[in-house]
């Protein structure tokens, strides 16, 4: 079967998640004729908003904390409906089941409530240091990773020096930056802080979405990744989007459409056509054949290479590397439809819209991680909670509430299997919630727990991993997703990668999509 | 054994464990033919072939060589690494793995091929037997199971190493078919070079192919290890009047140099063995460029090979040399204008059949084209504790160095 019209696209983008749309929009803006193929009925991938109970809507990705300013600006996302106004920016609260919560106000704790004066002072210093160092890494997380192939040593080190902006630091600070770069977050926090709640929060944020505990080497990198994000010019800021993350996706969609991009939903790519050693188009599972000058996959790299392209068009060593990408998710997602807004212990009314974190200490997070190493989940999981319907009442019926929680840890390959394990994990999570918000269980109208296996199936994320590949040192920069496909172009001419599996990684970020578009426009075959 | 390790362990358990670990007790394994080869080895000169005890010389290198060229020589090739590759996608798997077009290899045929890594560097060369539509045997020098298994990702194919289960003999020389005829192997007269056939032996089917490493009339026979000795006896009984002789590698090596064949990790360094980054070789650099089939689909290393060709090709070329005089130039340095170092000889003999002093050498590309004038080799000959240094003229000549009509005559000549 061939496509009904003889349209020849300059580029076809597989995957209508945010990165696919961003990539398409960047290409469309310079006059390329671009088609986006989205397998689901809705665009947005894990950022889409769905109704999980009658009248209750939620998004898998419930927070926005790193949508890149260049993406926002170049695609004029605010003009297309993205609302980054400070009104929606929310603080973070480290909950405590017994004592008082600790509240980080402003962008990642510009202010600290509920701590003593000396800890406030210590936090101000640690925070400043963290942002100073995250700032150095920021350019690395925005541009294309360095290539070991095309650069001599001098060029590479020049790149690294500029990229790292090490010169901006004083000698002592530079030394310390290099010292702590690959440290674990637990030791780092112990050096400068006293408050267990604060250390638990930082530990949680550092390991969120990865298979690391706070005491695992390199776990501090995850915190830098988090803090390198910014919103509306405020580093570390976060917001719970009005309309759910789906509204953000809608803005990106509008920007793409304004750039002339055509978007097709319910169009499942089954195969990338390879002719004379080049990617020449996409075959849909309906048999429809779509030809394009460039094929850009915003899907998972393993899905792209092993399923859509097929090993027969690739080298064995490359296939071996792709098969070995570590991407077993270790987080679950809980959605609760509640009769009324839950009351968390000691949480002041005005902070109910905050990101609420249950991770009372570094040890709490580390203990939650221990069973995950052995294919089990902890009876005391750590979690991040939002109540999106507080900021946007349209997400729940009047008076009712949506609770959205990311549960850390939930190993993809659960030893007992998720059929048996899922009700037990739900029970564990609800017990923890009940302790922090007594009475909450009685108000539950409906619950939806997404294990990594569910996330994999629903969002087409192998391993249920939202970064499409562990975001750890061995899978970063030129090793992301694998050597040979690190620069958004791939060994197969005409095929590009634009998803979170590529550098710099996941979250609602947009940089992989933006960089991929630049690579395509940069004249790469 | 460390005393601590055995505390609390029963002697029977230790014995059991030791029984499971024979590998370091027998550093060189015997092949299924070992009792027969051993009995014929009056010289007891052995070498290590892929972990097996293999004869370099059995009784006389010179006479063993002439057994290949004038009689029927038997060489035990059981240590050759063998893989069984089977499944609906076996053809596609091998087409992506190797350089030549496997879709053109018909069942019942063999071809000589090679395979590369992602960078287009040769991992090994070998022979590919197509036993049926969906079943193949790959024979080679080095072990490749992890590479083959990783190459099988996405293909419906099963791969198993069968080196130990399958014993193999090369039967080579002008009387080799007469031996088969006398042994009662009907149908073998119809085998053309690179054909595969079968004959019955003790209620089993034995695979025979008209292939070899000598450039002579010859066959390779594959039999289940359990029937190896009776097959050997059957051939030697039948071959009595045809001068059948077992031979060692030294004699075979002479024949293969005459035939112009290269040996992995002797004439080139395979990609997985090379420690130095400039020692790896693309097919074009070792005379295997003819295998690279750009008319077929993708295969491992293709993009790298095409890129190298677009950039002018490899830095070295493998060539045949004819050298004046009669002193073998083994591992001699090759010079241009007797001054500039341009390459190295990897194998060299005085060829008794060609009556020429021949060599296989790798030369810098500029000097590796046919017709290059002014090439010299420097030969150091040890003569009673003194090197005699000779500068000899060399010229590039085509391989093979000998062409024997009997190699391809079908039906083969009777003795």
TrEMBL record, chain A:
Gene Ontology molecular functions: oxidoreductase activity
One Pfam family recorded for the sequence: Amino_oxidase
Domain Amine oxidase: 20-511
SUPFAM superfamilies for this protein: FAD/NAD(P)-binding domain
Role of this protein: Probable oxidoreductase that may play a role as regulator of mitochondrial function.
Subunit structure and binding partners: Interacts with COX5B; this interaction may contribute to localize PYROXD2 to the inner face of the inner mitochondrial membrane.
PANTHER family linked: PHYTOENE DEHYDROGENASE, PYRIDINE NUCLEOTIDE-DISULFIDE OXIDOREDUCTASE DOMAIN-CONTAINING PROTEIN 2
Name of protein: Pyridine nucleotide-disulfide oxidoreductase domain-containing protein 2
Organism: Pseudaminobacter soli
TrEMBL record, chain B:
Binding site for substrate: 220
Organism domain of life: Bacteria
Signal peptide boundaries: none
Domain Aminomethyltransferase C-terminal per the UniProt entry, residue ranges: 318-402
GCVT N-terminal domain mapped to chain residues: 62-296
Pfam families in the record: GCV_T (PF01571), GCV_T_C (PF08669)
PANTHER family: AMINOMETHYLTRANSFERASE (PTHR43757), AMINOMETHYLTRANSFERASE, MITOCHONDRIAL (PTHR43757:SF2)
Protein name: Aminomethyltransferase family protein
Protein's organism: Pseudaminobacter soli
């Amino acid at each position: 079967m061939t496509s009904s019209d003889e349209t020849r696209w300059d580029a076809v983008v597989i995957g209508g998640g945010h990165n696919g749309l961003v990539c398409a929009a960047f290409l469309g803006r310079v006059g390329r004729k671009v088609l986006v193929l989205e397998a689901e009925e809705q665009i947005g991938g894990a950022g889409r908003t769905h109704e999980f109970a009658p009248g209750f809507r939620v998004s898998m990705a419930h927070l926005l904390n790193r949508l890149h300013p260049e993406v926002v600006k170049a695609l004029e996302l605010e003009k297309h409906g993205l609302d980054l106004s400070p009104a929606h920016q929310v603080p973070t609260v480290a909950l405590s089941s017994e004592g008082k919560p600790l509240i980080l106000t402003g962008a990642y704790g510009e202010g600290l409530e509920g701590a003593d004066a000396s800890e406030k002072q210590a936090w101000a210093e640690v925070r400043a240091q963290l942002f100073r160092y995250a700032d150095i890494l920021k350019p690395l997380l925005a541009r294309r990773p360095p290539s070991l192939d095309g650069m001599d040593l001098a060029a590479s080190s020049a790149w690294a020096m500029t990229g790292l902006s090490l010169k901006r630091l004083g000698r002592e600070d530079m030394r310390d930056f290099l010292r702590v770069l690959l440290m674990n977050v637990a030791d780092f926090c112990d050096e400068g802080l006293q408050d267990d709640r604060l250390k638990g929060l930082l530990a949680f944020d550092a390991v969120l979405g990865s298979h690391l505990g706070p005491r695992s080497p390199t776990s501090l990198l995850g915190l830098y990744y988090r803090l390198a994000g910014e919103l509306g010019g405020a580093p570390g800021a976060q917001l719970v989007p009005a309309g759910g993350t789906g509204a953000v996706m809608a803005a990106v969609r509008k920007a793409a459409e304004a750039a002339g991009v055509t978007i097709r939903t319910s169009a499942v790519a089954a195969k990338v056509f390879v002719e004379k050693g080049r990617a020449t188009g996409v075959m849909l599972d309906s048999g429809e054949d779509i030809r394009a000058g460039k094929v850009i996959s915003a899907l998972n790299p393993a899905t792209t290479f092993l399923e859509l392209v097929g090993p027969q068009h690739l080298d064995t060593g490359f296939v071996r590397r792709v098969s070995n990408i570590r991407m077993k998710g270790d987080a679950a997602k809980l959605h609760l439809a509640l009769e009324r807004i839950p009351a968390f212990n000691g949480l002041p009314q005005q902070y109910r819209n905050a990101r609420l974190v249950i991770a009372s200490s570094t040890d709490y997070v580390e203990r939650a991680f221990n069973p995950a190493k052995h294919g089990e989940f902890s009876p005391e999981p750590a979690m991040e909670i939002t109540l999106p319907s507080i900021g946007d009442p349209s997400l729940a019926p009047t008076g009712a509430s949506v609770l959205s929680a990311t549960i850390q840890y939930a190993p993809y390959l659960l030893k007992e299997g998720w059929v048996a394990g899922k009700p037990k994990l739900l029970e564990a999570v609800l017990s923890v919630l009940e302790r922090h918000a007594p009475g909450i269980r009685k108000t539950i109208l409906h619950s939806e727990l997404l294990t990594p296996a569910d996330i994999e199936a629903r969002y087409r994320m192998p391993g249920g991993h939202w970064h499409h590949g562990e975001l750890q040192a061995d899978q970063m920069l030129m090793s992301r997703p694998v050597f040979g496909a690190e620069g958004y172009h791939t060994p197969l001419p005409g095929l590009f990668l634009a998803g979170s599996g590529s550098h710099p990684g996941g979250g609602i970020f947009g940089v992989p999509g933006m960089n991929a578009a630049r690579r395509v426009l940069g004249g790469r075959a | 054994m460390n005393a601590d390790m055995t505390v609390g362990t029963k002697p029977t358990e230790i014995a059991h464990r030791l029984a499971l670990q024979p590998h370091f007790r027998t550093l060189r394994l015997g092949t299924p033919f070992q009792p027969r080869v051993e009995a014929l080895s009056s010289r007891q000169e052995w070498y290590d072939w892929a972990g097996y005890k293999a004869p370099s010389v059995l009784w006389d290198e010179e006479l063993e060589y002439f057994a290949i060229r004038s009689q029927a020589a038997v060489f035990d090739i059981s240590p050759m690494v063998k893989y069984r590759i089977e499944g609906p996608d076996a053809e596609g798997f091998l087409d992506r793995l190797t350089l030549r077009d496997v879709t053109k290899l018909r069942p019942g045929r063999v071809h000589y091929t090679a395979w590369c890594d992602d960078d287009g560097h040769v991992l090994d060369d070998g022979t590919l037997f197509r036993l049926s539509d969906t079943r193949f045997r790959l024979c080679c020098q080095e072990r490749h199971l992890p590479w083959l298994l990783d190459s099988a990702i996405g293909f419906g194919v099963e791969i198993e190493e069968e080196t130990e289960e399958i014993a193999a003999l090369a039967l080579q020389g002008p009387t080799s078919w007469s031996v088969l005829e006398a042994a009662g192997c009907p149908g073998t007269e119809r085998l053309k070079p690179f054909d595969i056939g079968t004959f019955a032996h003790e209620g089993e089917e034995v695979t025979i192919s008209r292939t070899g490493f000598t450039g002579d009339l010859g066959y390779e026979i594959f039999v289940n290890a359990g029937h190896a000795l009776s097959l050997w006896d059957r051939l030697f009984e039948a071959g009595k009047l045809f001068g059948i002789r077992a031979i060692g590698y030294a004699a075979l090596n002479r024949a293969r140099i005459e035939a112009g064949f290269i040996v992995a990790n002797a004439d080139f360094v395979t990609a997985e063995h090379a420690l130095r980054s400039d020692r790896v070789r693309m097919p074009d650099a070792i005379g295997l460029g003819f295998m690279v089939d750009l008319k077929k689909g993708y295969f491992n290393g293709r993009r790298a090979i095409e890129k190298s060709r677009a950039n002018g090709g490899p830095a070295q070329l493998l060539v045949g040399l004819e050298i004046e005089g009669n002193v073998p130039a083994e591992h001699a340095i090759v010079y241009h204008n007797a001054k500039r170092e341009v390459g190295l000889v990897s194998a060299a003999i005085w060829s008794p059949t060609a009556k020429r002093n021949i060599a296989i050498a790798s030369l810098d590309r500029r000097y590796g084209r046919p017709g290059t004038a002014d090439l010299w080799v420097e030969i150091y000959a040890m003569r009673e504790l003194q090197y005699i240094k000779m500068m000899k003229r060399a010229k590039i000549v085509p391989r093979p160095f000998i062409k024997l009509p009997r190699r391809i005559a079908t039906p083969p000549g009777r003795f």
